[in-house]
């Protein structure tokens, strides 16, 4: 599990699991629609201000990742392209595209479930959120309900391989 950087956002570990369960429900909905089962929620001041689930197939848009859609929703909800003090919860470690958007949105903290050893940009392949040359650092915690997130992904891809 990646360590949380103190002073960025004040969310207790029990809250992390509760918010992650919301992200998992969104991931399940994505999987039921034939999308890779990834879900995300943005929380600010103890309230969900944005949510998203993978929809690149439905939207015919390569950028329609759960995190991007959750960020867009949150920005519209508060009327600002910056989300200071917000935490993004996602079921899978964000990719480079999503990690870049997270930094641009000035998210304070990212909490994710399963590591992504193929495209992860928090620590598995890249460390975008810790890049010292960027002007915004994002605290991050990985491994929250990781087994649940990984099981959902494994089940989805197992079913897909069986169908093809």
Can you tell me about this structure?
The chain has helices at 13-32, 56-59, 66-78, 96-104, 146-163, and strands at 39-44, 47-53, 87-92, 109-114, 139-141. By secondary structure, the protein is an alpha/beta fold. It has a five-stranded mixed β-sheet.
Number of strands: 5
Low-confidence stretches: 1-11
Percent in strands: 15-25%
What is the helical fraction, as a range of percent?
Answer: 25-40%
* Strand arrangement, major sheet: 2-1-3-4-5
Tell me the structural class. Answer: alpha/beta
Biggest sheet architecture: 5 strands, mixed
What do the pLDDT scores average to? Answer: 92
Q: What is the ordering of alpha helices and beta strands?
A: HEEHHEHEEH
**Anisotropy-based shape:** globular
**Rounded radius of gyration (Å):** 15 Å
What is the count of DSSP helices, taking H or I runs of 4+ residues? 5
Distance between the termini: 35 Å
Summarize the structure.
The chain is of the alpha/beta class and 164 residues long. Helices cover 39% and strands 17% of the residues. Helix 4 (96-104) links the parallel strand 3 (87-92) and strand 4 (109-114).
Topology:
Elements: H1 13-32, E1 39-44, E2 47-53, H2 56-59, H3 66-78, E3 87-92, H4 96-104, E4 109-114, E5 139-141, H5 146-163
Parallel strand pairs: 3-4, 4-5
Antiparallel strand pairs: 1-2, 1-3
Give short descriptive properties of this protein.
single chain, about 160 residues, alpha/beta, 5-stranded mixed β-sheet, 5 helices, disordered N terminus
